[in-house]
Design brief:
Length: 132
């Protein structure tokens, strides 16, 4: 039972469509479930590898995850966070991805905290310094 991913240029969303058979997918004209647009462009879908939670946790505890980690370099921290996120195999919320993108671009955590104050839970929600 194939699931295909598409990009809808009308509403600018990524959508996944399920088909019962490969032939049904080949014959269908995909329609965006959000805006009913029919100009969908097929994307390369992510491949899911089913692993037990124990296997994922073992991979995270592997010390090679931290190879090349420089605590003073935001880019290094961002790369490590991205690897951990990828290893867990779950989509992260947009705010988390934005933090990683900012770190990978070299923005210091303190600047990110100032630019995104709601990340720490709003007023009095804590800061990066609380984790030192």
């Amino acid at each position: 039972m194939p699931i295909y991913d598409y990009h809808c240029p009308d509403c600018r969303r990524r959508v996944s469509l399920f088909y019962r058979t490969l032939s049904a997918a080949a014959e269908a004209t995909p329609v965006c479930p959000h805006c009913q647009g029919q100009r969908l462009r097929r994307l390369v879908s992510k491949v899911a590898v089913v692993r037990s939670e124990d296997a994922r946790l073992d991979a995270l505890s592997d010390s090679s995850m931290f190879d090349g980690m420089d605590e003073e370099d935001p880019r290094s921290l961002g790369r490590m966070m991205r690897r951990m996120s990828d290893e867990m195999g779950e989509e992260m919320d947009p705010e988390f991805n934005e933090v990683i993108d900012r770190l990978e671009s070299g923005q210091p955590p303190e600047e990110i905290e100032k630019a995104m104050p709601d990340l720490a839970g709003g007023e009095g929600g804590g800061s990066y310094d609380d984790f030192d």
